Amino acid sequence: QVQLVESGGGLVQAGGSLRLSCAASGSIFSSNFMGWYRQAPGKQRELVASITSGGSTNYADSVKGRFTISKDNAKNTVYLQMNSLKPEDTAVYYCNAHLRPTGRVGEYAYWGQGTQVTVSL
Questions:
Q1: Span between the terminal Cα atoms of the chain, in Å
Q2: DSSP 3-state assignment of 62?
Q3: If you ran DSSP here, which 8-state letter would residue 65 be given?
Q4: What residues form DSSP beta bridges with 115?
Q5: How many whole angstroms separate alpha carbon 10 and alpha carbon 98?
Q6: Hey, is 117 helix, strand or coil?
Q7: Rounded-to-integer distance, Cα 71 and Cα 89, Å
Q8: Which whole-number Å values give the CA distances from 103 to 25, 70, 107, 109, in the listed order?
Q9: Nearest to 21 by CA among 90, 78, 98
């Protein structure tokens, strides 16, 4: 059974840093897309950063220059390094991945459980 497990959230002061990780477990043939979304109370969920199997990355304008997405293919893990954090970054962060399970034809979307990031003044 494939699942995504997130870690790294917490409480930090403005200007601080956090590193989120998302590990995909199970038998996975390939990963075409992995990304991070976030959702704050009263706001819609937004795509923060993404990375494809080819290494192409995209970032929301609000985090460009501050956040960096990366992956470790050997560990089936994607990371989000968050620097210069602002109170506006406070949200629940969700990992998302489009995966092909081993032995299956289709590609499926998976979500992590979410991890809380809180940035204080």
A1: 41
A2: helix
A3: T
A4: 93
A5: 26
A6: strand
A7: 21
A8: 15, 27, 11, 16
A9: 78
CB 82 within 8 Å of CB 18: yes
What are the φ/ψ torsions at residue 44 (nearest 5 degrees)? -75, 155
57: left (phi over 0), alpha (psi -120 to 50) or beta: beta
pLDDT in tens, 93-104: 999 999 998 888
User: What are the residues whose beta carbons fall under 8 Å from the beta carbon of 6, sequence distance 6 or more?
Assistant: 20, 21, 22, 93, 94, 95, 112, 113, 114, 115
Q: Is 3 helix (H, G, I), strand (E, B) or coil?
A: strand
**Residue whose C-alpha is closest to residue 7's, from 18, 21, 17, 19:** 21
Strands 108-111 and 10-13: unpaired
Handedness of CA 60, 63, 67, 68 (dihedral sign): positive
Instruction: Write the pLDDT tens digit of every residue in 68-86.
Output: 999 998 888 999 999 999 9
